[in-house]
Amino acid sequence: MDPLPLFLLLLPFFATLSSAADTISANNSLPGSQTITSAGGNFVLGFFKLGNSSSRYYVGIWYKKVSKITPVWVANRETPVADQSTSELRIAGDGNLVLLNQSKSIVWSTDANISSNSTLAVLLDDGNLQLRDESNESQVFWQSFDHPTNTWLPGSKVGLNKVTNRNQHLTAWKNDDDPAPGIFSLELDPNGTSQYFILWNMTTEYWTSGIWNGQIFSNVPEMTANYVYNFEYVSNSTENYFIYTVKDNTIISRFVMDVSGQIKQLTWLENSQTWILFWSQPRQQCQVYSFCGSFGSCNENALPFCKCVQGFSPKSQSDWDLGDQSEGCQRNTPLQCGRSNSSRTEKDGFLTMSNMRLPVNSRTLSAVGSDGACEAACLSDCSCTAYSYGSGGCSVWHGDLLNLQEQFNGSDASTLYLRLAASELQSSKSNKGTVIWIVVGVAVAVLTCLAIIWFMIRRRRKRQMMRASKAVGGGLVAFRYGELQHATKNFSHKLGGGGFGSVFRGSLPDSTVVAVKKLEGILQGEKQFRTEVSTIGTIQHVNLVRLLGFCSEGSNKLLVYEFMPKGSLDTQLFQSNSAALDWRTRYQIAVGIARGLAYLHEQCRDCIIHCDIKPENILLDDSCVPKVADFGLAKLVGRDFSRVLTTMRGTRGYLAPEWITGVAITPKADVYSYGMMLFEIVSGRRNLEQTEDGTTGFFPTLVASKLKSGDVGSLLDHRLEGEADLEEMERACKLACWCIQDDESCRPTMGQVGQVLEGFLEVNMPPIPRSLRVLAETPEEINFFYEFSSNQSSKTRSATSNSTQTKSTASNSSGV
User: What confidence score (pLDDT) does residue 804 get?
Assistant: First the structure.
């Protein structure tokens, strides 16, 4: 047979397959083994399963470009199908999109009012699934954006339809393995005000966004930093809604009503293959209403956050293990009150619970005037489950206790008396008595042993510390935790702290003063930690703080550094009670920092990116020689950890734009931070600061304008009374502007920075970074100036490349 006629016969079939890549038509259903993908390759629609269950399949939409399935919409969230292979998603005879299970019964449908003879389901590149007229794509009968589940995607609405009075709201999953609607939801105020509420059980509001003021919601000041997102609130005669979009289409971002009861904004980082959290509300987990359920207590200082109070156990341990505590706890032993067979000796009692946030829905007994009378009043009422007596009088609770919080440090912390069966209280007392006798016996034995060996331990410790002190002048010393605890007087003299831990002053037996840093969040094993530290210990430079030793015992990870008597640079620059550093000293400090960073970036065996350059991490010795501190911690904890740490807990004002956009970090991120710090060295004040007339000023924008007008002398710290080299000042200001360019390719290297400061390279007039131009036009946004967009305009790139000259024959895009 001639192959050409066969090809012509099959051509319509291939055309149908090609056109159906992102669609479901009447002639093209979606079986459980297949998926469809949006035209631009952003989203996938198909069947998926959660957890370890092989009998629960869902139809949903997830990201194509995210390595782990992250559903953003689920059709049959309450009715999973048991057999994927025999289920299908198809267009029904009435034009609706329906899901058929293995028995060909409809388990989910769009249920739209359709007036067309032929419909088509199309998955769009923004994650919206539309059911529309096949011959008229503008006629949309139903779309998933109108029926969100737990995720709010860019471009979709969450609002109120005033015509139908239908509220589009987000509802959290039941738990991480079950997308069925949970008890937490986010919705726009149904009364018509422009604020969003988070609700518990669709009834109790425990967080509000505040009213829309035309630019942001009043309780969400983070929205001011809108260099990543565009925001719009719309209110007209038919609907109220809020919508957001991402300025850079390469950023994958989602807004989620989480199972934790918090709303969260997350961004996907491809390099680390993980979602990172940029923002959440409420900020503390225990602020979520009834997060731990009835008789469950929340503790902000413990993991997991929830536990049942004494005398109670989880109603469903399996749900608790999956992060769903909504069912709360149940009594282990029923109360004796009201039971016909209870004896007179089996009276209920009360367990004392101190430092508690009291549960909600209390009743005040105004006629009761003492603690004893309050207890008696509760004890006489079989429905009373707890009481509290304080300045507000006698409060009693009936039924379930909700919203309990332990170790509560708020001003309204109180003592709660929880009603328990007598056997529960006796068991508690018996256990306490046994424990006390055991403790007494052990204590006597231990004290006896200590009396015998105390002198030997003291002498041994002294000999070990003397050996360690002598070794400090040579190689790296491996200290024991007890030795550093003794050297720092049990960590009593705190010098400061930061994202990686706290620093304490210590003294070795030979009177060598050291700084001891207790690290937090370090997960390496003993061998890996020692290997990393030994590598860092070999890095020595006059402008890097020297590592003398370390300690690694279990979870205790400490680093021992040389002590810097003049402290950190921020105390010398910003504290009013400190003598102002003269210009010559400041300039040499800037040069020294540049040399230290250039060594880390360009001369070490492995490039080390500091990730947190700021005045607090620059230490000064007796001669004001600068030394970069914490330079090895980015390497020690890993770059991914550093990324998250800096994004979530770093210092505002020093973060390069690429931190926000999630692209791979290079040494140019340190260059940006250095540029921001160089501004502060010149001015002697924070870049963002209240001026004398009460307005908020952003110093880099002032530098840009003064460079243009040629008046750099006015930028100098006023305490120096104009005593400075104006040529050096202009050079430093130009260089700082080059360092903070939005496009990292336009920034110089740290090696070039040092050469400019030392006069070996000239620096040209820099273009004003786009982020500074935006801030100059919208000064109300400067409180969050640290989140800049990473996209440099082509005009800026052109201006940059056309204005670069050097004393040498080479030229580059950084302007030096």
Answer: 32
As a CATH number, domain 569-802 is 1.10.510.10
Domain 157-283 has CATH 2.60.98: no
Nearest CA to 158 among 181, 187, 127? Answer: 187
User: Which among 177, 161, 226, 403 has a CA at the least distance from the CA of 306?
Assistant: 403
Query: What fold is seen in the domain 429-563?
Result: Phosphorylase Kinase; domain 1 (3.30.200)
The catalytic site residues sit at 612
What does residue 117 show for φ and ψ, rounded to 5 degrees?
Answer: -80, -20
Note the pLDDT tens digit of each residue in 473-496: 346 888 888 889 889 998 989 888
Q: What is the pLDDT of residue 260?
A: 93
Q: How far is CA 589 from CA 216, 651, 678, 786, in A?
A: 41, 21, 10, 24
The verdict on whether residue 347 carries a ligand-binding annotation is no
Between CA 306 and CA 328 the distance in angstroms is 10
Q: In b/e form, how buried is each residue of 106-120, taking b as 16+ CB within 10 angstroms?
A: ebbbbebebeeeebb
CA dihedral angle for residue 467, residue 468, residue 470, residue 476, rounded to 10 degrees: 140
Query: Rounded to 5 degrees, what are φ and ψ at 538?
Result: -80, -10
Q: Buried b / exposed e across 381-390, counting CB within 10 Å, b at 16+? A: eeebbbbbbe
Q: What does DSSP assign to residue 602?
A: I
pLDDT above 90 covers a percentage of the chain that reads 47
Which class is domain 21-147? mainly beta
Q: How confident is the model at residue 544 (pLDDT cuts 50, 70, 90)?
A: very high
Single out the residue of 545, 619, 617, 624 nearest to residue 588, CA to CA.
624
Structure tokens at 631: 């330079």
Q: Report CA torsion sign: 291, 296, 299, 305.
A: negative
